[in-house]
Design goal:
alpha/beta, Rossmann fold, seven-stranded parallel sheet, three-stranded mixed sheet, 13 helices, globular, binds nicotinamide-adenine-dinucleotide, binds thymidine-5'-diphosphate
Length: 355
């Protein structure tokens, strides 16, 4: 019987993952440890209402006593660790909380898993899947080949540095203590439930309200995009079949410059909502993000050949599905865009964008 401790399960990828996990393992017990920060929303998980095998624990991954207590209370067989501060722009404004949650939080979880396993009366070591990002590899130039798992780490934002530190702790717990740690490094996700301060849902919200869509610099920076469902499927496969101690890149093989991405998004939104008029007029070039990484691109040959996973949802289909989801959930959007959301936008972009 599986007892899966998922951290950050009320966030964007975490909530999508919980639904995928429930479909894959209807009998699994799921403990969702989430602090419910601005990015965590229990409303994302209404599908778990009345599910006797699901428990939400509101708490901090960096709270040692709480995390130890979870390991002693439940026979945890797997950990899937999403909980993190995840937004680069926020890490530039306030890096301290990134170190606490992403570094100290990951350490706290790894250590609690190790302590629980060291206890001879305790369960077997849980498989520990640490969910990380392509940003740890740093910024690529236009002609660099996509990076493999063997590429050196070169993080350049406080967010990326905190995730890189967490990855190294995960690697260390495998090599030093043989804790069965698996690490995944994924490219930019998009899809349902993404908090509307990341590029795609933010651009959608601004477009729906006829407000400016800020694009940093010239909009030439390149990201690789993956539909969140494909990411969740990859995580399930790594959790079930991955080799412990190994790292797997997960990406969409869909590299697009930001300006082009936003134009494609607005083109599709315009088809679905012609009443919104000419949306390209909203695109506004604004001063660049400090230290803005130029390009991320992942070589995903390893997960394709070893685990048989590949991205299945193309960018156009994924964007259409994402737009349809947001158009069908305007009430969800209204509720998450609280006062705190508006004050972040004001701090980040000023009155011109917030209106
Ligand atoms: P998110 O910001 O939407 O959600 C983060 C979740 O973690 C929220 O539910 C929040 O309440 C919770 N949380 C924050 N601090 C916590 C704490 N101290 N204790 C417990 N819970 C806490 O993030 P996301 O986009 O869903 O990303 C999830 C994970 O995937 C992160 O580790 C991120 O680094 C990684 N990742 C994200 C992307 C992406 O494109 N979004 C890409 C690759 C990897
Ligand atoms: P983001 O969604 O914040 O993800 P990340 O920085 O982790 O890749 O941003 C994606 C890209 O879009 C990144 O190059 C920054 C850019 N961007 C803008 O140009 N304008 C914006 O308002 C935001 C939020 C992002």
């Amino acid at each position: 019987m599986s007892w899966v401790l998922v951290t950050g399960g009320a966030g964007f990828i975490g909530s999508n993952f919980l639904y995928s996990l429930r479909r894959r393992q209807p009998g699994a017990h799921i403990i969702n440890l989430d602090l419910l920060t601005y990015a965590g929303n229990p409303e994302n998980l209404t599908g778990f209402q009345g599910d006797s095998r699901y428990i939400l624990v509101r708490g901090d991954v960096a709270d040692r006593e709480l995390v130890q207590d979870l390991f002693s209370r439940y026979p945890i067989t797997e950990v899937v660790h999403f909980a993190a501060e995840s937004h680069v722009d926020r890490s530039i404004l306030d890096p301290g909380v990134f170190v606490r949650t992403n570094v100290v939080g990951t350490f706290t979880l790894l250590e609690a898993a190790r302590q629980a396993w060291k206890n001879p009366a305790g369960p077997e070591a849980p498989r520990f899947l640490h969910v990380s990002t392509d940003e740890v590899y740093g910024s690529l130039g236009p002609l660099d080949p996509p990076v493999t798992e063997a590429a050196p780490y070169a993080p350049r934002s406080p967010y990326a540095a905190s995730k890189a530190s967490a990855d190294f702790l995960g690697r260390a717990y495998f090599h030093t203590y043989q804790l069965p740690v698996l690490i995944t490094n994924c490219s930019n996700n998009y899809g349902p439930y993404q908090f509307p301060e990341k590029l795609i849902p933010f651009a959608l919200c601004q477009a729906l309200e006829g407000k400016p869509i800020p694009i940093y610099g010239q909009g030439a920076n390149i990201r690789d995009w993956l539909f969140v469902e494909d990411h969740c499927q990859a995580l399930l496969q790594v959790l079930e079949q991955g080799r412990v101690g190994e790292t797997y890149n997960i990406g969409g093989r869909q590299e697009v410059p930001n300006l082009e991405l936003v134009r494609r998004l607005l083109g599709l939104l315009g088809e679905m909502r012609p009443d919104l008029g000419d949306l390209n007029r909203l695109i506004t070039l604004v001063p660049d993000r400090p230290g803005h990484d130029w390009r991320y691109a992942l070589n995903i040959g390893k997960i394709e050949s070893r685990l048989g996973w590949r991205p299945r949802v193309g960018l156009e289909e994924g964007l259409r599905r994402t737009i349809a989801w947001y158009l069908g959930h305007e009430d969800w959007l209204d509720r998450v865009r609280s006062q705190a959301y508006r004050s972040f936008l004001m701090q980040q972009y000023g009155t011109g964008v917030v209106g």
